[in-house]
Amino acid sequence: MYDLHVHTNLSIGEDPVQNVAEMAKRLGIKGIGIARYYSGTAIGELPGVEGIDLINCVIIKPSNVNELAELSRKARNKAEILMVHGGNYEINRAACENSMIDVLCHPELGRRDSGLDHVCARAAADNEVALEINFREILESYRRHRTYVLSSMMKNIKLASKYGANIVTASGAVSRWGLRSGRELASITNLLGLNLGDAIATSSTIPEEMITKNRNKLANKEWLGVKIVDDRDDKA
User: Fold this and answer.
1) I need a surface site. Which of 84, 123, 174, 225 has the fewest CB within 10 A?
2) How far apart are CA 117 and CA 123, in angstroms?
3) pLDDT score at 235
4) Are 175 and 14 in contact (CB under 8 A)?
């Protein structure tokens, strides 16, 4: 089981990577995505922790569509999983239309609708952009706002299912106490309308295949026309 969206004190989280990783191991999680925001500056290497796979997940938070395109080009070869901070419809749609993006996070964030429509869902399927179900958005909402969040997630699951877009379920945790086991995450997506087998895949086979594919591409140092250039090449 995998959780691709976890924050530590390297970004907006409370705990160091080691503490989060130890909790994840106790929950039976095979790999966690250590999420860090990218604004054009360098991103350091992740520490190694025995017994768990730490995935370098980079989140871009663009203010407009042009910035999304620019940041995705710059960040793509720095990330094993490249995510977009969703919520704004124009950003959501542009992310779904960008094949360099792996995951659109919480498209419903801060909205009273789902943040997606059939155009976005079809584009996400065509470009292999997964749509995220973020548990923290449910956990930290209440009363009427929680109703909006749940109904929006249900709509996005229906759209993804109709048009064949992938879904990933993640904790969005900002502390080790916010982590959930893979089956707990899958149960949320199942309750929101996805059949059990497909719900389990959202925190197992779908993220695992995404990680494997991207690591293979990064190992070859090429990505959809983006080539990683060694520093020594610049000095030649």
Assistant:
1) 225
2) 10
3) 44
4) yes
